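subagent[fold] <- orchestrator: predict structure for attached chain, return tokens only, no commentary.
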Amino acid sequence: MTAGRAKAKIKAGPRGVAFGYVTARRSCISKTYASMMSVDIRRISVAIRELGAGGVWRIPEADAEPTPVAMLMLDIRRGRPAELRMEVAKALCAHCIELLGLREDRLNVEFTQHDGDEMYHPALGGYSPDWKPGEA
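subagent[fold] -> orchestrator:
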């Protein structure tokens, strides 16, 4: 396993998060991410934040009213190929659709890439190493 760290923040706007259901199924998000990104699952943190009705929104068409949406924000180590990030985004969106009842057309995924020394994880020895192709 690698020493990378990931943090996913899911901001849910369209409907309330059913905490008990999400708690029971939350490991699938971490497992999917760890498997696809070849990262030590112990470095993954997932936060689901409910911002309330209208807390996250976008205007879907030029003259339309604001529409509630949800965002996934992933902090990752720099260097992963765009194709891999796209596959991870699709897989995590599928989990959000299943777990939270969100609509695919109302989800956004944003990746913020960091050098390893911008990710400190004291329980696992400090900074994460930089990502290298072929890590497992």
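orchestrator: received. Logging for downstream: DSSP finds three helices and eight strands in the chain. The first strand starts at residue 6 and ends at 12.
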